[in-house]
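dumping the sequnces here before i forget
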Amino acid sequence: MLLHGTGVGRGIAVGPVLRMPAPLSEPEDVPRTVDADTEYSRALAALGAVGHDLTDRARRAGGEAEGVILTQSMMTQDPALLDDVRSRIDAGSTAERAVFEAFSGVRQMLLALGGSPADRAVDVEDVGQRVVAQLRGLQPPGVPEVDHPFVLIAGDLGPADAAALDIGQVLGLITVGGGPTSHTAILARSKGIVAVVGVTDATGIDEGTTVLLDAGEGSVTVEPSVEDVTAARERLVARRVAVPIGPGTLADGTRIPLLANIGSAAEAKAALTLGAEGIGLFRTELVFLGARSAPTVAEQQDEYRRLFTACRGKRVVVRTFDAGSDKPLSFLATDPEENPALGLRGIRATRAHEGVLRDQLAAIAAADAETDAEVWVMAPMVADADEAGYFVSLARELGIQVAGVMAEVPSCALMAGQVLGIADFVSIGTNDLTQYTLAADRQLGSVASYADPWHPAVLRLIKMIGDAGEQSGRPVGVCGEAAADPMLAVVLVGLGATSLSMAPTAFEAVRTELRQHTLEHARALAVQALSASTAAEARALVRE
Ligand code: PEP
Ligand code: MG
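..and the predicted 3d for all of it:
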């Protein structure tokens, strides 16, 4: 059976149906048995309690929902409505009946106006129901709690219920009433819930029946066949036409700058053509891999000037030399090491040759002064706040304005709060962070299956850094390969990444995927991934 309504968004959802319980029965129109003042006090207490509850829900919901639910909360204190309740009680009604009639009056008036005001009628009805439930000592009507994912069918949802929908559980939403501008539709869109509203025939669908929602088509298929689901998935893929070049943006408008990883100034132009909003990782060691002696300040300044000039007005994150292990630089050579990945590499190597680091920072600062890019500098392989402090103060001494660190060593993630108390920003190098978390050499094929950034252990460390970034208000980027995996990129944003840097060829796929998810949805996906036991499970949970 195929039913029609208005789709919200363009997604699809398949799952068993769960029905919203029927609204409370209408209070009987019987004379009150207590005096008017006592009855009115009862009504005021119930209105006050519901108002408080809605304010709490509004704060918890945040985002777009907050304003909508606060408006509902204010209805409970509306002077005209309170006067109406009072006069109905004075005329002999019970508090329940007076509240019911007062809210029904406002609802009828909105419905009579039609258009957008009529879409608000459900908000008013929802508040009225809550107050009547409070007067009867019952739980407010709301979304049922079950332990499996479901497609919810409701007559219509009040904003408080729509905002409280757990997007980890609600696969999709069908409403019998409501239009495309109803709050249910607005909130479903902002939460990234697949919804089809105004499906007038949905009342006949039995609880537990599997349905297929296609928001792009505005359709609901009852008991779909395997072929129906496959065809809907194909329509979904076809709809995901690549988002044209432009800023990295989530479905709710949140900006996630897409930056490029490059290994020379010459690569910047191509990156910008493909839509790079800046450079998120300039691997400076790659420019001087063949050099026998340390490059001079002037030589380096030339290279950096070329890059900064090409990136006028844009952010350019320069990484100081990351020598050692897979990238040996003869001018930063160390004694032979048994385990070079655990040896004197990254900041450890440049700290041991501080003259080289000083020259590099001076060259970057000089090129910065000559050009108009927004230059940020970071050190690789920083282990803790002490090492971050060493780098940041040296960078400042040499004229660098914005100095940060790469989080690639698990200790840096574990100490992220302290590190972000010192560094202006953190950029997560997921390649090394994965290698060190799973103790799997990134060069070694025999342990390649361990080196998977989807591993929940890696994601948990990233979450620590994301949380520290949020608390400190400082940016947390990701510049490892993980940022180029479109689905993982969404999870990284959900874990707190504020920018993503990748090979420019990945921009289109990542930009397109980001556009399908709100920040709230990305966070919900991150929670799913964090709950997994293995990388494969995290990937599967998020793909589902
Ligand atoms: C990383 O480790 O994720 C990173 C970006 O640095 P590199 O790959 O150059 O070690
Ligand atoms: Mg690295």
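The chain has three domains: 2-21+142-239, 36-136, 258-543.
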